[in-house]
Amino acid sequence: MPNDKNSEYLNVSSSQIMGLTEQHLTPLIGPHKLHRITIDAFLSMQKAAASENIDIQVCSSFRSFDRQLSIWNKKWRGELPLLSLNGEVLDTANLSDEQKIHAIMLWSALPGASRHHWGTDFDVYDRAEVTRRKHQFELVPAEYENGGPCAELSNWISDNAATFGFYLPYSKYTGGVAREPWHLSHKMVANKIISDFDLDSLLILLKKSEILGKEQILKQLPDLVERYTYNKGL
After folding, report:
1. Measured at the alpha carbon of residue 53, what is the angle toward residues 50 and 54, in degrees to the nearest 5?
2. How far is CA 142 from its chain centroid?
3. What mean pLDDT comes out for the span 55-70?
4. Which whole number is the average pLDDT over 120-141?
5. Which is nearest to 185 in space by CA: 162, 152, 160?
6. Which residues pair with 115 in a beta bridge?
7. What is the pLDDT of residues 142-193, one digit of tens each?
8. For position 1, what pLDDT does the model report?
9. pLDDT category of residue 234 using cuts at 50, 70 and 90
10. Residue spans per domain, the chain
11. Can you give the pLDDT at residue 122?
12. Which of 21, 51, 112, 229 is most exposed by smallest CB count within 10 Å?
C-alpha cells in the first residue's frame, strides 16, 4: 500500500495518462522524466545494482502523445521499418491496414495508449558494460541474453526488480508486444493507472488526431489496448 507521502502522487489525470501533459513527471537525468514515485524507487534500485557492479541506466522514458504519433505515422508510411517478431524487415506495401496495425504494435505502442506516457515505464541498459565492450547498442533482445552486454543486468533485474516495486510487463511474447527484457514498470503506480484508464477519452482523442489507419484502429480499440498495452495477448 502507498504511504501517506506518496498517496497524493497516485492520482494521474486522463490527459497525463494519454501523454498530453507532463505535470505528473519529475526530471531524472538528461531528457528523461518519470513519475515521482517511480523515480524514488528507480534510484534505490540503481544504487543497489551499482553495489554489485551493474550500471542500470535509463535509455528511454517518457514519450509524449505527439512523439508516439510521429513514430506511428512514419512506420505506417514506411519511413521507419516494420519488423517481424524475428526482427526481419517487412514489406509495408504488401500489408493490409489490419496487418500494419499489428506489425507496428508488435514493437511500438499506439499513441495515447503507450505505457511510456505514464512515467511508470522506462527502458534500461548497462551503460558501463556497453561502453567497455565498445558495443553499438541497438536495444534488441540478443543484447540481454547469452553473454550479451546487458545479460548480467537482465539476470539482476529478474532476481531483484520486484524488491523495488518493478516488474517486466513484456517479459515474454503472448501474442501482443514482442519480448522486451529492457522494459521496466513500477507495478503499484502502473496498476493504478490501468484501473483509471478511460477508453472513451482515448477514442475521442484518436478521432481528433491525424493518426494513419484511424478507421481500422477505432473499430478494434478496446481489443488493441487489452492485447498490447496490458499485454494480455491472444
Report:
1. 70
2. 18
3. 98
4. 97
5. 162
6. none
7. 999 999 999 999 999 999 999 999 999 999 999 999 999 999 999 999 999 9
8. 41
9. confident
10. 4-229
11. 98
12. 51
Cell numbers representing residue 22 in the block? 507532463
Q: What does the alpha-carbon distance between residue 196 and residue 219 come to, in Å, rounded to a whole number?
A: 22
User: How far separated are the first and last CA of the chain, in Å rounded?
Assistant: 31
Helix or strand (DSSP H, E) at 221: helix 221-224
The DSSP element (H or E) to which 167 belongs, if any, is: strand 166-167
Residue with cell 550479451: 148
Closest CA to 223 of 199, 204, 201: 199
Count Cβ neighbours within 10 Å for each residue of 32-60 and write b for 16 or more, e otherwise. bbbbbbbbbbbeebbeebeeeebbbbbeb
Nearest to 34 by CA among 140, 201, 165: 165
Q: Tell me the sheet residues that pair with 184.
A: 122
Which pTM was predicted?
0.93
Q: Which CATH class is domain 4-229?
A: alpha beta
190-218 pLDDT per residue, tens: 999 999 999 999 999 999 999 999 999 99
Residue carrying the nine cell digits 514489406: 91
- Give the β-pairing of 56-60 and 183-186: unpaired
Measured distance CA(129)–CA(55) in Å, rounded: 8
Amino acid at residue number 84: S
The separation between CA 193 and the C-alpha centre of its own chain, rounded to angstroms, equals: 14
The residues near 9 (Cβ < 8 Å, ≥ 6 apart) are 24, 35, 36, 37, 189
